[in-house]
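Extended Data, record Beta-monoglucosyldiacylglycerol synthase
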Amino acid sequence: MTRINTFICVTVALVSLCCWALLNRPEIEPPWPDRIQGFSFSPLRIGHNPVKQEAPSIAEIDSDLQLLAGQTNAIRTYSVDGILQHVPSLAQKYGLNVTLGAWISDDLEENERQLETVIYLARQHYHNVIRVIVGNEALLRGDVSTARLHGYLDRVREALDIPVSTAEPWHIWQQQPDLADHVDFIAVHLLPYWEGIHLDRAVDHVIDRHDMLKLTFPEKEIVITEVGWPSNGRIRQDAVASTANQAAFLRRFLDRAERLDLVYYVLEAFDQPWKRTSEGTVGAYWGVYDADRRPKFPFTTPIVNIPKWHILAAISVALSLLVSTLLLIDSRSLRKRGCGFLAAVAVLCASGAVWIVYSYWRQYMTPGALTIGALMLIGLTGVLVVLLAEAHEWAESLWGGVGRRFSPPITVTDDLLPKVSIHVPAYNEPPQMLIETLNALSELDYPDFEVIVMDNNTKDPSVWQPVREHCLTLGERFRFFHEDRLTGFKAGALNYALARTAADTSVVAVIDSDYVVKRNWLRDLAPHFLKPQVAIVQAPQDYRDDRDNLFKTMCYAEYRGFFCIGMITRNERNAIIQHGTMTMVRKAVLTEIEGWAPWCITEDAELGLHIFEKGYEAIYVPTSYGKGLMPDTFIDFKKQRYRWAYGAVQIMRQHARTLLGSSDSRLTRGQRYHFIAGWLPWLADGINLLFTLAALAWSAAMIQAPLRFEPPLLMISLIPLSLFFFKLAKMIYLYRRRVNASAVQTIASALAGLSLTHTIAKAVLFGLVSSNLPFFRTPKRAAAGTIRYALQAVREEGLLATALLAAIYGIIVRQGVESPDLLLWVMVLLVQTIPYLAAVLVSFIAAGTPAPTSLIATLAKPISVTGNRQEGSTYAPLHER
């Protein structure tokens, strides 16, 4: 990197470091007391689960009580099942009082065993069992009726001479005040997190509810049997689960509780990973100590959001510098703003990735969580690679030295012009359309050329014979060939024509059968071959039917971005995509690489890469020299893009070693980069289809079992949303700045492009597992479809859109969108729906009656960057009016 680039990277990295420091400023909170009133106590560890009868050993329980002995006066238990019966005796050894709990559920036989055992243990351990709680939120869950619980309470109270109650949230006591007639004290759960209360109001909320109950039941002691805050989990309205918030809430509450002389039990001593199945992810993270018995936050020193943020910041800076270095390897022509933009994007990506990985790995890892984490890491890496590639194109398009390899027309005398053989492959083309193409070729202002028309496998003689007869009228320059059983599709036809090319030909030019060329096409472009290293000269595709209807106007706007942005940027590194019309190839090079590849359905792009591998140069002249016809129907538009995407995967598979630099070739780093980065968005579409299907499955599970299947973590939802909105912002910005499109034209292009997302995704996925898709010719002058045809053309897209909208509706009805993670997941589903809805909309536009294209005005001249300053294009516009 240059010194200025190094300075920019270091500056942005320092800004990142300051941001980490700013977000982790120490917060001073009241210190934790030397001893607290009590802890809710469950001795289960990782791997334990009471539902599966997996319990800790006596030694493990003893170790836990020994840890708590010097920190609390009492513990509160929830059950007397199995080994938990030993808790009172073990607690007595360490001088701990016990509020003993009997678990009440809908299993009436088990309830009887719990009641008998709790009565027995309370009598046996009268020295340290100071209270009994019959049932924990049994009424809230609806496990037993109020009358049955009354009976249980009366029975235990009669059997014991210590206080007895049942534990419920505050609103249950408010709703059922007669419950107080059957207890000796009010055992209340005050958990402001579950109510979505902001941290800053949480302690006041607890005190207010405590005082309200005191007013309601003045004769009863109020014991807060659960009070706490989780260190991890989903956000509930204004309540954010985090370690820092847990520490702040508990230290603030304990300070108030000590001053107000409240009786309380902090929820809870130790994290309980098994609770994820019953309470969701957050259920595992209420402990003051984690599952390995380590304190989760400082008890007296200032609180920091991420205690080891210095390490994360250092990793972020190192990653951002590495990414910036890679992005700026070839940045000599990139202006300072472009370098700064890329450095800033690198820092944001690196910091975001570090934060996402750190946040995810703070969970308790199960095999399922590890699997999801590994998939998330792969997906995150892919998203960041695509995002950085998009950012690189954005920077180079706006602030790069575009125009360095621009080749203006060369004027030479006729005797220096090379002979050109123009090849026109055809299959079942409308004869009048092809005749129009040949008439335009006959008027070329060029001294030495021939035209070879190769009709491949057209069965109906009435289609190809008129063309043959017309070639005879155009003179000896025009030769017509027809074969009924020629293999290799378009590549086969071009190789057939190559074999019959005049011996003194120097350049082979290819145009599609629907193209009407300008008279100066060859005269302007052929002289570039006077430079020995030039093997390809490419003019852009352009179209003459973009005003036929609204559908074609939208398609034209979508096509234009590639030729006004992508191809111009790629040309700067000699890495253009060769497309099989308006292209010219040096015959000697074409022969050297043994012609067009019949195994590839995008033989043109494959040929271009193959030529680059030999070390030759290509020139892209962004001037329109010919106009063809676009697909007439949406299904043909889809099939055309399917072929392009499938062919791209074929090429990547065939040339993988070359592209990755593991075999001998003369490809430069810039060429490798552009070919890989250029196809990355299509690969991302394929992965996105798998993500959509997984999102649907997960959403269905969320609707059916909301406690077991929560919305994905906030960080996971942010990944696809970030990529979508970044790509959208890039597309809008570049279309306005580089293509010079209006807002309506930009929207039209976006809709047309989004409508192909599912098609590209399928092509990529099938291309990864197959290699023999037959060539599909894009029909020309096809009749517009009906509304029924429009529906048939988007069956899959329509079904997926319906499924996604149904999932959104189901989640909103079932769980609402009060928490940010639910809202964000709904947004993810909504964003995933957009491409499928776009496909349906575009299909209906294509099948409808011709709409006034005044809705989308004629595209203005594109804007380019030359001489390191932005100005009106020195290139001719793609489409002159």
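Summary. Residues 863-881 have pLDDT under 50 and may be disordered.
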